[in-house]
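RESIDUES AND SHAPES:
===
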Amino acid sequence: MKIAVMGAAGRMGLELVRAVSAAPGCTLSGASERPGSAALGKDVGELAGLGHLGVAVSDNSEAVIAAAGAILDFTSPEATADFAKRAAEHGTVHVIGTTGLDGASEAAIQEAAKKTVIIKAGNMSLGVNLLVALTRKVAAALGEDFDIEIVEMHHRNKVDAPSGTALMLGQAAAEGRGVSLTQRSVRARDGHTGPRTVGDIGFATLRGGSVVGDHTVIFAGDGERIELTHLAADRGIFARGAVKAAQWGKGRAPGLYAMTDVLGI
C-alpha cells in the first residue's frame, strides 16, 4: 500500500515516516510540508534517521495525495480540512490524528467522508481506545453518585487543550451516562466556584517537559475512588496505530470511521 505522510518533517510526522517504512506491505510514496519549510527538497528518510529513501519533502500536497493510496495526517485543523477535500477528490484513504478541530473543520471532514474513507481519532493507540471503552462502561455502571474528573498531561509544546484524547474520554463518559458532554463538561475552575454540580464531567490540563501523553479518568464516590490510567512513553504507538488504520481502510466503503472500528472494540 502506498502511504504518504502530511506534515512529514514535524516530530509526529517523522514518527509516521518511520512507522510506514517499517510496516510490511507498505511503501512511503510521499511526504508533504507547508510552503517555506526548511525541510522542503530534503530526503525524508534522512530527516527521520533512516538513510536515503528517495522521497523528497514537497509542498505540493495535491500531488502527494493524488499519488498515495492513503495519507497520514497529524497536522493542523485548517490543513486537515483542506487535505480531506483533496483526499475525497482522489479517493485516497485519509487517517486523521489532528486534534483541536473546530466546527468548520469537522464539517469539511464529514462532507469529504461521503466520497472516501476517513478514519479520525484523537488517539490512535490500542491502549487508549481500550481505556475509552472501559470509561464508557464504568460511567454507565456507577451513575451520578460518582463524580468524573479527567486529568491529562502533555509536553510543553502542545497547543490545544484539553487534549483530543481527554475529549474522547469525556465523550465516552457522557455516552455512558446518557448525557451531552457539551452541556455537562467543566473545562476550568478559578476563584470561588461553589460546590461541584452533580453530574458534571471535569477536565484538568497539565503541560510541561517532554511528556508524550498521560491520561487518567477518576470516578470519585463517597469513601472510594476508581482511577483508570494510560501512560504513553513512545510516540511510535500512535504512528503504528495510524498505519494500521490506513491498511484497514483500504477497499472499504466511503464513510467516517473511528479507531474503535479499526480495532473492533
Q: What stands out?
A: The first strand starts at residue 2 and ends at 6. The chain has a mean pLDDT of 96. The chain is about 40% helix and 25% strand. The CA atoms of residues 81 and 105 lie 5 Å apart.
